[in-house]
UniProtKB/TrEMBL annotation:
Residues 401-421 are annotated as: Disordered. The keyword Nucleotide-binding does not apply. Residues 1-22 form the signal peptide. One of its GO terms (biological process) is carbohydrate metabolic process. Residues 404-421 have a biased composition (Low complexity). PROSITE patterns: PROKAR_LIPOPROTEIN. This is Polysaccharide deacetylase. Keywords: Signal. It comes from the Bacteria.
Amino acid sequence: MAATQKVATVAVVAASCVASLAGCSTGSSGSKEGAPGPQQAPAEAPRSAIRLIGDGSTAFTGAQPHLPRPERLKAGERPPQFVVFSWDGAGEDSQRLFSHFRKVARENNATMTYFLSGVYLVPEERRDVYRPPQHSPGRSDIGFNDRDGIADTVKQLRLAWLEGNEIGTHFNGHFCGSGGVGEWSVEEWKDEIAQAKQFVKSWKTNSGMKDTSPLPFDYDKELIGARTPCLEGQKNFIKAASGLGFRYDTSGVNNQVWPGKKEGLWDLSMQLVPFPGHTYEQLTMDYNFMVNQSGTTTQGDPGKHERWGDEMRDGLLQGFQRAYDGNRAPLIIGNHFESWNGGTYMRAVQEVVEQVCNKPEVRCVSFRQLVDWLDAQDPKILAKLRTLKVGEAPKQGWESFLSARPAPAPRGVPGAPAVRP
């Protein structure tokens, strides 16, 4: 019943996405505290370490800082509780929410995933460089940007990556419903992906800001995952992405269980969690809480804003506790940099970060860090974890449940012993 309720909500979202800079969507074990994160913004990479790529919009600056080395679970070891906070259509605008949540993450031992919409690096006057599938050139349901907005967004992307956060993609024009991404072919998805990459790799040419520092990463290698607009078009997107170096997708709807793979990609779907005051569960995304509270009105009754935010916060916390005390399935949370219903959902997300990310055995990580850890595990151990239902802890305890010694990781797989010279 809960899944049926939530899928219906996704359909509502598909018909009512709000055009704004933020975009929209319908989505250590044994340690004594949360995994340590970067405590301050790092300095720029030394000039001598920079190798410019293309027009200098991006650059190779070495391995990304602050990425922990994934390790295999030991025999009988309880899995850490992973929590992923992610942001659709990430961009910095006058609300300054991108920079704000970077600070929140640093202060709470967390890293996050920022899904960039490529058109946020394209100025309005250059909009015709975008050729969206099934739409006329220069069309975008979330608009484009201006030079100041591009400069601000590039600055946040640069600093976020240097702090260990991940830069994924929310693609470009954010088309939902008729003619939208749900109707795109595999080849059309490949074209959209290529354009999303190109806008990141050529933002200097498109904006004319030649003297600005480059993004410190090679986006062809950095981009390993995505969330589709309105959670539509997943089937053909996965088929397209599986041959393009992608490692995960987070465009589906699922329960709080351990993930598997689809078409070779980790299926890190949005999840259903308790919805306080309601008889059905809710998707772990701010937009969906809003739609079920104020409908398609983004600024509903001010007298209800606080309660609505509390419902989202408490629903996410109940979902977290259910996993933390139960099957330890990773908790996947999606958001937007928006001020819907007075910003109550941003307040709710911040309170969840502050309450969960410093708990023992909790790791608030990016999707990249999560899939690195998953890839490091013994497949037989992951298969056993997938037998646990929502909120179900092993009846015989973790030590007995995972008592079998995992097979060693093959050479070259994350978590394998280091090769000694």
